[in-house]
UniProtKB/TrEMBL annotation:
InterPro entries: AAA+_ATPase, ABC_transporter-like_ATP-bd, FeS-cluster_ATPase_SufC. SMART domains: AAA. Keywords: ATP-binding, Nucleotide-binding. This is Fe-S cluster assembly ATPase SufC. Residues 2-246 form the ABC transporter domain. PANTHER family: ABC TRANSPORTER I FAMILY MEMBER 6, CHLOROPLASTIC. It holds the Pfam family ABC_tran. Belongs to the ABC transporter superfamily. Ycf16 family.
Amino acid sequence: MLSIKNLAAKVEEKDILKGLSIEVKPGEVHAIMGPNGAGKSTLGNVLAGREGYEVTGGSIEFLGENILDFEAHERACKGVFLAFQYPVEIPGVSNMEFLKASVDAVRESRGLEPYSSVEFIKLAREKSKAVDLPADFLKRGVNEGFSGGEKKRNELMQMMLLEPTLCILDETDSGLDIDALQVVADGVNKLRDPNRSFIVVTHYQRLLDYIVPDFVHVLADGKIVKSGGKELALELEKEGYGWIEKETV
Ligand code: ADP
Ligand code: MG
Ligand code: MG
């Protein structure tokens, strides 16, 4: 599904990713852990095609296509979804309108008709219930005045509506209490599917108790320095990252 080879990327003239490789097959959940500043968010942003990141080497192939040539919205239409560490507020634009516009754009690119308002309202209410967000959040401005947990639930709802093929969650657990964490994890687990893959960036092993990954990778200084199964996350929780750095010198 996703093949990242020797990826190198710069932000503001600074080398951040320095030869990073990962292979993700359909249905797999890959967790990415690593110290602050390692390049985890940069990886998510480069995958999603956000502006401000210059790819200086390597390749990203998604569903057999080199996606480095595509703009962010084209990648979204092809099924790449990035959930942000800090979701943005868009006051004045209703959440419902925003969701409908993004879902219809993706549907259009797949040759499908836009939803009618009635259909979409029904669908959005169903999904807001699934993430435990009261329906009146659909009428409010996008993320306007939402708490951290509410923003994450809202984003999860957006993900459910968009039905992406590759979901990238960047520290979706940061700032969540245990109940909100459970809601996010349940939502992700419901979306797990043989044709859908996840890259879950997290600082803490805690989230991985609920979203059990197939693989865990440690990203340090712009590269994957260690990979393993879910037990690697437990080891990291106990031992920190120092031992890996020693192991790799
Ligand atoms: P992580 O998510 O692993 O904590 P990031 O990918 O956010 O790490 O950041 C990696 C490095 O890139 C850090 O040193 C950070 O300061 C730098 N960086 C990220 N974004 C920018 C930016 N827009 N301008 C300058 N430096 C940046
Ligand atoms: Mg960070
Ligand atoms: Mg980050």
